[in-house]
Design brief:
The complex is a heterodimer. By secondary structure, chain A is of the alpha/beta class. Chain A contains eight helices and eleven strands. By secondary structure, chain B is of the alpha+beta class. Chain B contains eleven helices and twelve strands. In chain B, strands 2-1-5-4-3 form a five-stranded antiparallel beta sheet, covered by helices on one side. Chain B has a five-stranded mixed beta sheet with strand order 7-9-10-12-11. Chain B has a two-stranded antiparallel ribbon with strand order 6-8. The chains are: A alpha/beta, B alpha+beta. At the A-B interface, helix 1 of A face helix 5, helix 6 and helix 9 of B.
Chain lengths: 224, 468
């Protein structure tokens, strides 16, 4: 999943982005308000994490512009402003969550997961597709009860496909959500990742293939 | 606990008691004097008659004549229950004659009288009879020839019953005492009532004071209806609350600023620690260095806020001494030089640096902040200009994106023009502290945005410069 982090404190932004990436998210980050708005308008983020007091454009204005443009990316405010009035204003302007500094990283991660579930209309941390089971809290995917040995990127890719089970996901969408901007569009990084993933989820000879290719469209995860 | 009301009551009653005792004594003794004078006048009249009678031609019976004359003049002498008395003694002290009213009683022997002056005295004739007496020499040198002058006089004592006088005086004394007690009692009640009414504004003041706490320091005592004697107390209390409010505001501001400023570094520290605990294999030297940098930043924030709070509380007193501003700038530029070099910033100086009589510690805060501000905000490769005049110094740095109408806001606490540049290293308090220090020194610190440059100016006021 792809997240946007707009926070003007370099150190805080750095460590939060590092933690998010380590958890398996793809993260775009900036310390500038205008740049944050541009990124949010140009990309389809699963969740945007915004500070309120930002240089050039504050977080509340970014949110207003996004909602004005019809972009409903879930937004979490991450701010030092802890007054009830500040929280109410943030939520009323369309924020989905509000976290006051200092905060616990675990709490931020849990809130991001909750917002992601909402995006994909899931009410639980567990997602089941055929005999595949995704445990969002444990960041673990198992098949027929056996945990799969996945890298964080493989996990992110399989999670993305599982959350969209039954829907075709294009290579561009995968690149957008899972990989960094500097992925060469001509490379076959997505194809090779899908190949690896197919191999890893085929835990035995009887395992049914679940990831299917739609020529010219992309990939679909479903039981056939 | 000492009660003012009790003390005032006791003082007033004590004073009134003394005044009343003095007044009662005055009344009593003047009345007594008047009664005795009247009685003495009567006795004097009687005595004159006796003397006159005693000077008659009958040389052998001066006493009888006197006695007769007395008895004629006052029938009370003859009556056994009369209230007038006389007794006549020969010079040897033997009773020659006495009034029937005396019965078997005697008037006190007055002794040998010297001269012709009468002698008055009050004596107790019996247990229930008090008499006022006049004692005289009756007779005296007669006209008879060949007779000794000494044998021609007698000692006479004439008395009038003074029991009524004593009784009147006794009644007067009782009356005075009773009136005194009534007056004192009434006064005690009146004083108590008056004090209760008079002290009501103080009780109201105490009630109002009791309702003031740290959350209601913006309220003031309403002294409009208070008596004029309490107006100064109301005014002083209001001033005191004003000072308390100012102090509490300062403390609250300090706490709020501290909490606000520390939120981000604490969030950073917490995130770094959590990350290191969760993924220890990813924790490296950079993480430790960042942790140390955060600690330094927090220390700097606390130091700055404490300095600001102390300066604003008025505890900081300037220590005036000659300060060479040129040397001070060189000293302050030294720690900034490395950053300036890294960012390719050049400091240019114009004019002759002056020597001001001021406090070096405060000037260090002010100029240090202005220079640091210039180094932090000037674009890479820019030129920082320092211009001297005898009464002012200006520090100029290019700031093309600075909102020109907000130049003076740089002195507001926590205000930041460009947070992206100041994110981790500046708290937004430095220039606020600089202005507070300038105010303490009586200097003017202003800022303006002109031709794309941000210019901070530190100046001595005109009159100070003219005087200096």
């Amino acid at each position: 999943m792809r997240l946007l982090l707009v926070e003007d404190s370099d150190r805080l932004r750095g460590i939060v982005a590092k933690a998010l990436r380590r958890t398996g998210y793809r993260v775009d980050e900036t310390g500038d308000g205008k740049e944050g708005l541009d990124l949010a308008q140009d990309h389809d983020y699963d969740v945007a994490i915004l500070d309120i007091m930002l240089p050039s454009l504050d977080g509340l204005t970014i949110l207003e512009r996004l909602r004005g443009d019809g972009i409903d990316t879930p937004v979490i405010f991450l701010t030092a402003r802890d007054g009830i009035g500040d929280r109410v204003e943030g939520l009323r302007r369309g924020a989905d969550d509000y976290l006051v500094k200092p905060f616990a990283l675990e709490e931020l991660l849990a809130r991001i997961e909750a917002l992601s579930r909402r995006t994909y209309q899931k009410s639980s941390n567990e997602v089941r597709v055929a005999d595949l089971l995704l445990d969002g809290a444990a960041k673990r995917i198992s098949r027929q009860g056996s945990p799969l040995d996945l890298t964080s990127r493989e996990y992110a890719l399989l999670e993305y496909l599982m959350l969209r089970a039954g829907h075709v996901v294009s290579r561009a969408q995968i690149e957008e959500h899972i990989y960094d901007d500097f992925v060469n569009p001509m490379s076959n990084v997505v194809d090779s990742a899908i190949y690896t993933l197919r191999r890893k989820i085929a835990i035995d000879a009887d395992s049914k293939p679940l990831i299917h290719t739609r020529r010219g469209q992309g990939y679909i995860l479903e039981e056939r | 606990m000492k009660s003012s009301r009790r003390r005032l009551t006791l003082l007033l009653l004590g004073g009134l008691f003394v005044i009343w005792v003095l007044a009662a004594c005055g009344i009593y003794f003047s009345q007594r004097h008047r009664i005795i004078s009247d009685l003495d006048a009567k006795l004097t009249l009687e005595a004159r008659s006796v003397k006159f009678a005693a000077r008659g031609n009958d040389e052998n019976a001066p006493k009888s004549i006197a006695a007769r004359r007395l008895q004629e003049r006052l029938p009370e002498y003859d009556s056994s229950d009369g209230d007038a008395f006389f007794q006549i003694w020969n010079p040897a002290g033997e009773t020659e004659e006495k009034s029937a009213s005396l019965g078997d009683r005697d008037l006190p022997w007055p002794g040998s009288l010297i001269g012709n002056s009468p002698v008055f005295k009050t004596a107790q004739l019996s247990d229930d009879v008090t008499v006022r007496l006049i004692s005289i020499r009756a007779g005296g040198p007669g006209k008879a020839k060949g007779k000794s002058r000494r044998s021609s006089f007698a000692i006479a004592a004439i008395g009038l019953d003074a029991t009524d006088m004593q009784r009147s005086l006794s009644h007067l004394m009782t009356g005075l005492l009773a009136v005194g007690l009534i007056v004192l009692g009434s006064t005690a009640l009146l004083v108590n009532l008056s004090l209760r009414v008079g002290l009501a504004p103080i009780r109201r003041l105490a009630r109002e004071a009791g309702m003031i706490d740290t959350d209601t320091l913006d309220s003031r005592f309403d002294g409009e209806q208070a008596p004029s004697e309490l107006q100064p107390i109301y005014a002083q209390l209001n001033e005191l609350i004003g000072r308390l409010e100012e102090g509490f505001d300062r403390e609250r501001r300090f706490s709020a600023d501290l909490a606000h400023e520390l939120r981000t570094p604490i969030a950073e520290l917490r995130a770094i620690s959590e990350f290191a605990l969760k993924w220890p294999e990813d924790s490296d030297e950079d993480t430790r260095e960042e942790t140390f940098a955060i600690a330094e930043q927090m220390e700097s924030i606390v130091d700055t806020l404490l300095t600001l709070a102390r300066a604003e509380s008025g505890h900081a007193r300037p220590d005036q001494q000659p300060v060479d501003l040129g040397l001070l700038v060189d000293e302050l530029w030294e720690p900034l030089r490395q950053t300036a070099d890294e960012r390719d910033l050049l400091l240019t100086k114009e004019g002759q640096p002056p020597v001001w009589t001021s406090d070096k510690r405060f000037l260090r805060h002010i100029i240090g902040n202005l220079l640091g501000n210039g180094v932090s905000h000037a674009p890479n490769g820019a030129q920082l200009g320092l211009a001297w005049a005898s009464n002012a110094l200006e520090i100029r740095n290019p700031a093309p994106d600075f909102p020109s109408d907000q130049a003076d806001r740089v002195f507001d606490r926590l205000w930041r023009a460009d947070r992206s540049r100041t994110g981790n290293s500046h708290s937004g308090l430095g220039l606020s502290l600089a202005r507070t220090c300038a105010n303490i020194l009586g200097l003017e610190l202003t800022a303006r945005h002109e031709g794309g440059d941000f210019i901070a100016r530190l100046a001595q006021p005109e009159e100070s410069h003219a005087a200096g």
